[in-house]
C-alpha cells in the first residue's frame, strides 16, 4: 500500500474542487493514482459538488472579450494548479526510486 504526503492529498482534492467538469477517474489517471484513492481523499475532506447553484444575473451581459478573458484566466489557474501538483508528484516519486 502506497503512502502519499498530506500536502499531495490536499492538492489533489483542491484540484478536484477547482475543476467541476473533471471526473475522479480522469483526474486520478492524470495524477498517477488509483481513482478509489482519490475518491476516498475527497470523501474524507468532505468535498461535494454543488448542485443547482445559480449565479445572480449580471446587470448587462459580458462582452465577448470579457467572456474570453474570464475563460482564459480560469484555464491558466487550472494549468498552474496541475503543474504544481505534477511537480510535487514527480518530486515524491523521484525520492521513492532512490535506494
Architecture blueprint of SSEs:
Blueprint: H1 6-18, H2 24-31, H3 35-45, H4 64-97
Helix pairs in contact: 1-3, 1-4, 2-3
What class, by secondary structure content? mainly alpha
Helix proportion range: 55-70%
The topology string of helices and strands comes to HHHH
End-to-end Cα distance, whole Å, is 18 Å
- Beta fraction: under 5%
Return the CATH architecture of the domain at 1-46. Answer: Orthogonal Bundle
Over all CA atoms, what is the radius of gyration? 17 Å
Write up this protein:
This protein has 99 residues and is mostly helical. The chain has a domain at 1-46: Homeodomain-like (Arc Repressor Mutant, subunit A), CATH 1.10.10. It has four helices and no strands. The chain is elongated and about 55 Å long.
Summarize this entry quickly.
By secondary structure, this protein is mainly alpha-helical. It has 4 helices and no strands.
Amino acid at each position: 500500500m502506497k503512502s502519499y504526503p498530506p500536502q499531495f492529498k490536499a492538492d489533489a482534492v483542491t484540484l478536484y474542487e477547482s475543476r467541476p467538469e473533471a471526473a475522479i477517474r480522469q483526474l486520478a489517471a492524470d495524477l498517477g493514482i488509483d481513482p478509489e484513492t482519490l475518491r476516498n481523499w475527497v470523501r474524507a475532506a468532505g468535498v461535494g459538488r454543488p448542485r443547482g447553484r445559480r449565479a445572480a444575473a449580471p446587470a448587462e451581459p459580458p462582452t465577448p472579450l470579457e467572456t474570453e478573458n474570464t475563460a482564459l484566466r480560469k484555464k491558466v489557474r487550472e494549468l498552474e494548479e496541475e503543474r504544481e501538483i505534477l511537480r510535487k508528484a514527480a518530486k515524491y516519486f523521484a525520492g521513492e526510486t532512490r535506494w
